[in-house]
Specification:
The complex is a heterodimer.
Chain A (H helix, E strand, L loop, with lengths): L11 E10 L2 E11 L4 E5 L6 H8 L7 E6 L2 E3 L12 E4 L11 H5 L6 E2 L2 E2 L1 H15 L14 H14 L4 E5 L7 H16 L3 E5 L3 H7 L2 E6 L2 E7 L5 H9 L3 H4 L12 E10 L2 E9 L3 E6 L5 H8 L7 E6 L2 E3 L4 H6 L2 E4 L3 H5 L6 H7 L6 E2 L2 E2 L1 H15 L15 H13 L5 E5 L7 H16 L3 E5 L3 H7 L2 E6 L2 E7 L5 H8 L9
Parallel strand pairs in A: 3-10, 3-11, 6-9, 9-10, 15-22, 15-23, 18-21, 21-22
Antiparallel strand pairs in A: 1-2, 1-4, 4-5, 7-8, 11-12, 13-14, 13-16, 16-17, 19-20, 23-24
Chain B lengths: L3 H36 L6 H26 L7 H23 L3 H27 L5 H19 L4 E3 L2 H7 L1 H4 L1 E2 L2 E2 H19 L1 H11 L1 H6 L4 H27 L1 E3 L6 H11 L11 H20 L8 H16 L3 H6 L1
The chains are: A alpha/beta, B mainly alpha.
């Protein structure tokens, strides 16, 4: 370990923090400290406990054991954002701004300046303008939040934090939704904050960025503290290795070679739809086709249009060699095409219902006998699904909202597979689930492909795309910018296409 | 902090509150009956009970339809006005048909057939404006409520539309005659209730209604034709209003601007008292039936005694609705224990 002994004292320090939710332990005696004027990156896989640690550091969760020290003194952080008063601010990934209000109103929300009982607009605007100038953000205090870009909104959040004299700024994947250029602007502003002595905790899955911006890096894996090191001692590869803690080949199933002569099951030509621009690609029987790209690049939109969830503006779709017009979701299902949403809580499962109605909802016509539902067939299907997908529930009568994320995801997968699709599109197959379940899902996808089912995997997690896909389509701003096969499927190549640095001339 | 024992406690509390939800309305009805009997033993006379069941048939039948609309996340405020408008048109058409068809059964059948077509049509309009027009159900049905109500006033020229005396003779048995000891309206009520229960609990359509009310996006992603199912719930509601109207018209043989006033509120109240969730996703036809019976029983008891003025019927019904919903809050036991 190369911890600099001459470093300034930490502003905030988490000491031997453990946290359990009910019977489920999430963090095991994790320690981390943040010094003034440093960027401390927190990395780890999904489910490693990063969010939990961030929420404990900012008072949104109480630790089950261990302590938080602020300026060396043990402190119980006040809950629900009260820690802001102590200078500790968490910026959530889904930003917390009132969209219809102006920049100035947002920055001063809840502590407006007043004179004689009325709002002192002039003083507030002047203050906000000063902060905006300092940080180098060219917007006006009277701009409405809804008119700003995501990057600008993020900066407004930071201005809001700074205006509250934040000493520690905790940011959850601030760059996830930023373009390359926006990220660079963001980093310049982070540098300025550092100079003014603010300590920054920064969570990111983009390891190159971590290398670029962080002073120190803390790695978590499965709730355990793995290491804290100066980022100059680490390479992105080493970070990945420490995050995963094992050879990646353990996580991903062995890959069958793709059969390049297999029949085409889906051919899409010049598809145009909302946020989809002239997209063409094809899918073969038994193939696992990855769709990569930044968030908002149109990957989901392509398949929502194909599966009847969004209108198609132009283009042709050939399914098993036959032209299909625009289909409804039910027609797509009946032809063997199913889409599994990435938003399992809002679009995938009825959280207040039990497992059985959830499982059979998508394939419900299959369970109709003499105009009525065959509840015995449904029950049998549930038992089969629980075995096949290893869904673990204390009780079959539990409402689905009480299942863990991993079990919800397995149930959602079971729900889609209940109609025996020949082509299945899985959007973010492992979002927010633990490593063990991830591995099960990867093996399941590989097994499906081996049986001759064609699988499209849309994912923002690069290792997953690289680990399980035969071929990778990269999208940017509604266009396909590249199609990668074999050795070309690697993080660098994908990133260059996704960021628009490289572009294939297709056709 | 949540320990294992907390967890079980929470679970058993949840169990008992679900049980309470299911049997609650039945217990409430039983208590009301006992109170009714204690206040006046004549309450359980055959005549009174039959009367009570017949009276509850109108609201009950409409409320079965409302159970579908509400379970699928909608609301229909137009049912009372719709019943009035359908009654009015039925009476006009039957009166005018006498010349060509006489005053026998064919004319009555014509009137009934027309009522069914009108009910289905009115429901389809409500449903289509809500789904294809993407206007909130509350607004759409508030609008059609006003339209139907003013139409009946217009048809009656501000007064009362009366059914021709001869047809009244032919049509009368539909309300007043009995079959196996039960009045005809009660049989219609029972038939509608059984069909409604089967449809909601035993068919894919019922499951779709529940899914849409629970989360419309999930339903759409699960290959459910959300617009069609929602429209159908309004059509079912319209059909139920037709049935209620068909058995209502022979009772008085007339329709006016005051026909069916506040039926929509009584129907919604019956649904909610029965345990269906107002925001959708959970519906109980059996509960709705009990809810309708509870509402009618309150009125009946007030008629029977002098303890509370009959004019306070609305107050009693209002109190029962509020208390019922309060008891159904799924967290009321947990809330107390904390």
């Amino acid at each position: 370990m190369s911890v600099d002994t001459t470093a300034p004292a930490a502003v905030i320090e988490a000491v031997n923090i453990s946290k359990s939710f009910g019977p489920v332990p999430v963090l095991f005696s994790v320690s981390m400290d943040v010094r003034p004027g440093e960027v401390h990156a927190l990395i780890g896989e999904n489910g490693a406990g990063k969010s939990t640690l961030m929420k404990i550091l900012s008072g949104f969760h109480d630790p089950t054991s261990g302590q938080i020290r602020l300026d060396g003194k043990q402190t119980d952080l006040p809950p629900n954002g009260g820690a802001e008063k102590l200078g500790v601010v968490l910026i959530h990934q889904e930003l917390n701004l009132a969209e219809q209000m102006t920049v100035e109103e947002n920055v001063f929300l809840g502590r407006e300046l007043k004179s004689n009982g009325f709002l002192d607009k002039a003083a507030m605007q002047a203050t906000v303008r000063k902060y905006l100038d300092e940080i180098g953000l060219h917007i006006s205090p009277t701009d409405r939040i809804s008119d700003l870009t995501i990057a600008q909104k993020q900066m407004v959040e930071i201005v809001k934090a700074v205006s509250r004299n934040a000493r520690i700024l905790i940011m959850d994947e601030p760059t996830a939704v930023l373009t390359e250029e926006e990220t660079q602007v963001f980093f310049r502003q982070v540098e300025k904050l550092k100079e003014s002595g603010v300590g920054i905790v920064f969570v990111s899955h983009k390891l190159n960025e971590v290398k670029e911006i962080a002073d120190r890096v803390t790695i978590l894996r499965d709730g355990q503290w793995i290491d804290t090191r100066a980022s100059s001692d680490l390479t992105p590869d080493m970070m990945a290795q420490m995050m995963v803690g094992r050879e990646l080949s353990d996580l991903y199933p062995p890959m069958d070679e793709a059969d390049v002569d297999a029949e085409l099951v889906l051919e899409v030509q010049n598809l145009c739809a909302p946020s989809v621009n002239n997209v063409s690609f094809s899918l073969r029987k038994g193939e696992i086709l990855g769709f990569s790209g930044l968030i908002g690049s149109g990957r989901t939109a392509v398949f929502e249009a194909i599966c009847g969830l969004a209108p198609i503006e132009a283009g042709t779709i050939r399914l098993f060699g036959r032209d299909t017009g625009p289909m409804t979701v039910a027609e797509a299902r009946d032809l063997g095409l199913a889409y599994l949403t990435k938003d399992r809580k809002e679009k995938g499962l009825l959280l207040d219902k039990k497992m059985r109605p959830n499982l059979t909802l998508f394939a419900l016509p299959k369970f109709v006998r003499n105009f009525g539902l065959d509840s015995k067939a449904e029950e049998d299907a549930l038992n089969r699904a629980i075995r096949r997908f290893d869904v673990r529930a204390r009780d079959k009568e539990i409402t689905v909202g009480k299942l863990s994320g991993g079990n919800q995801q397995k149930l959602l997968l079971a729900k889609i597979m209940e109609c025996d699709p020949k082509i299945v599109i899985i959007d973010e197959p492992t979002r927010g689930i633990d490593v063990g379940t991830k591995q099960q899902i990867y093996h399941f996808i590989a097994a499906l492909a081996a049986e001759g089912v064609s699988v499209v995997v849309i994912s923002s997690e690069m290792p997953e795309i690289i680990g399980i896909c035969h071929r990778v389509v990269v999208m940017r701003e509604g266009h396909i910018t590249g199609v990668l096969t074999g050795d070309h499927i690697n993080e660098n190549e994908i990133m260059r296409y996704a960021a628009g640095l490289k572009r294939e001339e297709l056709h | 902090m949540m320990t294992a024992s907390d967890d079980t406690a929470a679970k058993s509390a949840k169990r008992s509150s679900i049980d309470f939800k299911t049997i609650g309305p039945a217990v409430a009805l039983l208590i009301l009956c006992i109170i009714g009997f204690l206040l006046n033993p004549a309450f359980i006379s055959e005549g009174n009970l039959t009367n009570l069941l017949t009276r509850s048939a109108f609201i009950g039948i409409i409320a079965v339809g409302a159970t579908f609309v509400i379970t699928a996340g909608g609301i229909d405020l137009s049912v009372g006005s719709m019943a009035a408008a359908i009654s009015g048109v039925m009476i006009i058409i039957m009166n005018n048909a006498i010349e060509t068809m006489g005053s026998g059964v064919p004319t009555v059948l014509l009137g009934c057939g027309l009522a069914i077509v009108l009910g289905i049509g009115a429901g389809w309009v409500n449903g289509t404006l809500t789904t294809k027009g993407k206007i909130e159900a509350f607004i759409v049905t508030l609008g059609t409520m006003g339209i139907y109500r003013s139409l009946v006033t217009y048809f009656a020229d501000g007064g009362t539309l009366s059914l021709n005396f001869d047809i009244r003779g032919t049509y009368r048995p539909v309300y007043y005659d009995t079959f196996l000891g039960l009045p005809f309206p009660v049989w219609v009520f029972i038939a509608v209730a059984i069909c409604g229960w089967l449809l909601l609990n035993r068919t894919a359509f019922g499951r779709y209604c529940t899914a849409i009310g629970s989360n419309e996006a999930v339903a759409r992603y699960s290959a459910i034709n959300v617009d069609r199912v929602k429209t159908l719930t309004y059509v079912i509601q319209g059909l139920c209003v037709s049935f209620a109207t068909i058995i209502y018209v022979p009772r008085l043989g007339s329709a006016s601007a005051s026909t069916g006033v506040l039926w929509e509120l009584e129907a919604i109240a019956a649904v909610i008292i029965g345990g269906t969730v107002l925001k959708g996703g959970y519906g109980r036809v059996g509960g709705t039936i009990l809810g309708a019976l509870i509402l009618t029983t309150i009125g009946n008891i007030l008629n029977f005694t002098d303890v509370i003025s009959n004019y306070l019927n609305g107050t009693m019904q209002g109190l029962i609705i509020i208390v019922a919903v309060f008891l159904q809050r799924s967290d009321w036991k947990l809330g107390k224990s904390k």
